[in-house]
């Protein structure tokens, strides 16, 4: 489904819409914003985003950029408070990003998002509002991306392996066994994951475990229970790998 927003007739104006929503369990079917980019900030809760290229999760305190023309669907499994800004594709200094990206939000960007929420839908380019948007774009463009996406392979054999892993994320089944179950050789699966996800199978599996761990921690599960649920033999190893991946321990990640 394609969603288009009316653009102002005066080309010296662009449109920004912002709203705050408190959502319970629900999902939004796959759609496309043909003329808008989106910036979503998760003030509370956790959201899932899916595109043909893969899956993202949006943890609290982070922001998700969705470029115009990006087909995506959204899913919220528990109450989540989101601040969402839409930017017309003609907005000056719009980040030149394709697809989706989750970024770690600094206090300055958090303040700018909050300030933009109260803006009028249309504004002239030579105004304080336009300069505020420009600073927001400059800051977002330089922020570090959070490794919370899980790229999707396309070949049916690699897709089968990925599904087996996700169905039993704690399993330590070796790749040769997984490949055999998918009707392929270990070498073929390694090649497919590298070519189609940009990651080795081992790196993809490690990322999958971290993504699932974030979801469980956001739901309130303990660090110990989460570590065992995603296949770690002890919480210490899990905490060390979590810190390496996300730059913070599980106990501090959601408070940043």
TrEMBL record:
Xref: SUPFAM superfamilies: Homeodomain-like (SSF46689), RmlC-like cupins (SSF51182)
Keyword list (alphabetical) reads:
DNA-binding, Repressor, Transcription, Transcription regulation
Q: Which SMART domains does this chain map to?
A: HTH_ARAC
Cited Pfam families: AraC_binding, HTH_18
The reply to whether Lyase figures as a keyword in the UniProt entry is no
Endpoints of the signal sequence: none
- Protein name per the record: AraC family transcriptional regulator
What's the source species for this entry?
Sphingomonas ginsenosidivorax
